[in-house]
Description:
CATH topology: Jelly Rolls
Radius of gyration: 17 Å
Largest sheet: 5 strands, antiparallel
Strand order of the largest sheet: 1-2-8-3-6
Helix content: 10-25%
Structural class: alpha+beta
Shape: globular
Number of strands: 10
Order of helices and strands: HHEEEEEEEEEE
Number of domains: 1
Number of helices: 2
Distance between the termini: 23 Å
Amino acid sequence: MAPSVDTGLDRLIPRLDRAVELGRAEAAAAAIKHTLAELIRERVIRLPERFRRTREDTYARRLLHRDPERDYSVVAMTWGPGQGTPLHDHGGIWCVEGVVEGEMEIVQFERVDDADGRYRFAPRGRVRALAGSSGALIPPFEYHVLRNALPEATTITLHVYGGELDHCHLFEDNGDGTYRRVRKQLSYHD
């Protein structure tokens, strides 16, 4: 029998459980941000090879852990060079994102208007997040664009969601400064 790989999940999951048990999204997110940053910087989290594989067509989204009792999930995302997302939300679910390796560019947006199904956004910050960085999105401040900032390397991120993120909304540019909201069903990759 092959030796098991120490992924660090035995240290991560109990701390996530305690953070989620704090109840309020703000308190849980703050505790999770601290936990992710600490364990990533200490190189405790080591993902198995299947979580490290990129996809040609899109970033890869793989379920790492789900706790239906505490209602949270952990998803590993693998980003090929230059891969990213369009402007999107998290369907009303809070999220903490941590960079495991590589570098991400994150642009945060604020929704400033939504008349007649036409949404307007204003950029509210651009961040280049290095390994060990973490950040939180708590509705209604959940609009952003993510992109692997490395032109020739893979980036891996961990996302802890306050529930099962099975859909989100993409915002498609109408070409006149407004966006159209489109529901997107999400799935996991092998």
